[in-house]
Amino acid sequence: MALSGLDIYKLLPKTNCKECGFPTCLAFAMKLSQKGVELSACPYVSDEAKAALEAASSPPIRLITIGTGENKIVVGNEVVLFRHEKTFYHEPGLVVRVADSWEPGKIAEVVSQVDSYVVERVGMKLTLNGIAVENVSGDATKFVQVVQLVKQKTALPLVLMSANAAAMDAALQIAGPDKPLVYAATPENWQAYADLAKKYACSLAITDSGDLSRLGSLAESVIKAGVADLVLDPGTRNLADSLASLTQLRRLALKKNLRLLGFPILALAGGDDSTLEEQTILATELIAKYAGIVVLGRFDPTGIYPLLAFRQNIYTDPQKPIQVSPGLYKFGEPGEQSPLLITTNFSLTYFTVAGEVEGSGVPSWLVIADSEGMSVLTAWAAGKFDAEKIAKSVKSAGMDDKLGHRKLVIPGYVATLSGEVEEELPGWQILVGPREAVDIPSYLKTVWKAA
Amino acid sequence: MPVTVELPKEKWNGKVREITLGATPAQGGTRTSTVTVGGETTLPFLHFEGSIPYRPAIAVEIQDVPPQDWSTTLLEAWDTAASDPVSWAKKAVELGADALAVKLRGTHPERQSRSAAEAAETVKAILGAVGVPLIVYGPEVAEKDNEVLVAVAEAAAGERLALGNCEDKNYRTIVAGALAHGHLVVAKTPIDVNLAKQLNILISDMGLPLDRVLMDPTTGALGYGIEYTYSVMERLRLAALMGDSMTQQPMICTVGEESWRQKESKVKDGVPSLWGDFAERGPLWEMATAMALLQSGADILVLRHPKTIKTMRETISKLMSS
Question: b/e string for A432-447 if b means 16 or more Cβ within 10 A?
């Protein structure tokens, strides 16, 4: 939590020596509170004051990195409870669990599928983020073999899950340089796990399924032992308890400024005994409400796709809506006599129009013009969706060659542009479509048919 | 040294309105069960902080005529039940519907263009066949909506139906029908906090008590604008808990209609194989949409697929157990 100028003043030498360039210590403190000057400008500041000020300026939820290179998972640094207050910054890492008790063939297959899973939405490639290897066997040799196998199959970050410190040490000897997340320190074993995290310079997950006070005590022990990068697992596994504990942790970090629990949260969704539906529903809750890492118990493409789409939706900056890539979109299998519509590339405009066109069942072409992410009326008012832009978008989509007709449906809200568009597109007939997307299906079935 | 963490609780002043759909014979209707939603004094499912007296309800969407444009996944699941509104209604109740959302699509001028009187007969037949409360939607064409919903309101006087949709350009006739015959209305606005408040004010100014108004913030499906709906619902619910009276209506979300409109749920062939199994994809898409909106404050989920109905019933039970 930010300190006020007066709070800072109390920590300064109060000698008004002016060496910082300000006439008084109070003036310097005021500037500091506005982040207009660095604390190092004061030559006489005490170590104690430095520590207090640094703590106050560090983020309430520590930024944690797992893995290395371009695939690394970076989570934390969140500043709000509700996305409309600002935005959610770091998408939770979705990692898939494999158990060292499985057949090596099955492990290799799952890891390869996770590694290569990619779906595209609104021009962005959505992928999974890592593999959690669980030492179900309890055997160190087996664990190491499987970690080795997984490393051969993927460069994605790893979460190493073992309750056996010797097995963890052995696995870290081969995987440590890849900076996996070490899971997990408990009230019983924390000393050994803290030592491992320090030895291999990895982030450490801590877990205590008791309550948040016990988790806080564990965090304090581990931090005192010298581990700075923590991930918290409150140990709640069902929908209601997870929602409560993850909400409490987020509030404690942001509203109570509780440093001990100011870390990203790891949660397990689904295991051997839960269904794909249960896993998908719990993971949906965890993505919406505050998880930093979600460990999925099973890999099934059908259950992965909705989670990736939902994560993309929730982590979109509300101030900067996603823009859809301009260009040509097909619905059904449109042919040369199919209708051609045009609209803007504001994502919600696109989704509304696309949903209605898709829902109409009429195979159609839709050209998306680059309106810089503005909706139809806003773009029109701002000159980003004018006759010239419309004509250019239709031409660059190559519609001249794709169509047997020369008819273009423009949004009803820009009916006034139809004459100008006809001038820009000689030989074309401009039809004025509905103002609201909801009326598109009936438009396509009646007006378009008749046209 | 043991650490003591005090659990952070917000102190909310406001409360979501309690609204009851359906009326029993003692209350002037013929329903054998009623549905009460709302009454929350905290954010969704935060039992440690406040009271959540009623579980979110599941309304199952049925139509008066067999749907023409539904995904094959849905049509196969309902099979012959969907060929007739009465058999469909009975099947939906068997599967666990707390209420039915009856869409009178057959009255649409471009569909069968059924008359208001026929629509009223259909609603009467459904009321005669099942005991749960009904939410009744017109064809979503302004003039015909008025005609159909007024006829339905009259034919089902005293049943405490919810009549939808009231929109800013078309609410007076429907509200008048609800007022005259003891029903509720669904007030629908396009993903906007202020428009939602405004419509509640307009409806309340006509004399309909606010404990007879459900709010539909407009649902965007998963992948199709859900983030807008999600945030508008969070903002409405936060405002309600902070005491803003005109945002305290329970929220109804048309999850089924929106999530089954999309390519992911409808198209089997020619889509990326990583989208997964077609038969499971649609229900999962609907379930994830429903779950997300429960987290942002949905009080009534309008659902389509039998699997979603079952799974969301179980999910709501889990969320309500504390």
Answer: bbbeebebbbbbbeeb
- The verdict on B168 touching A (C-beta cutoff 8 Å) is no
Of B2, B7, B266, the CB nearest to A358: B266
For chain A, give the percent of residues with pLDDT over 70: 99
Distance from A14 to chain B by nearest Cα, in Å? 35
Q: Would the CB atoms of A260 and B228 count as touching at under 8 Å?
A: no
Please state, as a whole number, how many other Cβ atoms lie within 10 Å of the Cβ of residue B315.
24
Domain B51-320 sits in which CATH superfamily?
Answer: Dihydropteroate synthase-like (3.20.20.20)
| Cβ-Cβ contacts under 8 Å, B4 against chain A | 213, 216
Helix or strand or coil: residue A269?
Answer: strand
By CB neighbour count within 10 A (0-12 exposed, 13-18 middle, 19+ buried), where does B7 fall? middle
**pLDDT digits 0-9 by tens, B111-124:** 899 999 999 999 99
Q: What is the dihedral of CA A371, A375, A381, A386, to 10 degrees?
A: 40
ipTM confidence: 0.97
Interchain CB contact of B274 with A (< 8 Å) = yes
Q: Domains plus CATH for chain A?
A: 5-57 (1.10.15.40), 64-314 (3.20.20.20), 327-450 (3.40.50.11600)
pLDDT for the residue numbered A374: 85
Contact B263/A at CB under 8 A: yes
Determine the pLDDT at residue A49: 81
Q: With beta carbons less than 8 A apart as the criterion, state whether A288 and B295 touch.
A: yes
pLDDT of B1 reads 64
What is the least distance, in Å, from the CA of A351 to any CA of chain B?
5
Distance from CA of A348 to the nearest CA of B (A): 6
**Mean per-residue pLDDT, B156-168:** 96
- Name every chain B residue with its beta carbon within 8 A of the beta carbon of A119: 272, 274-275
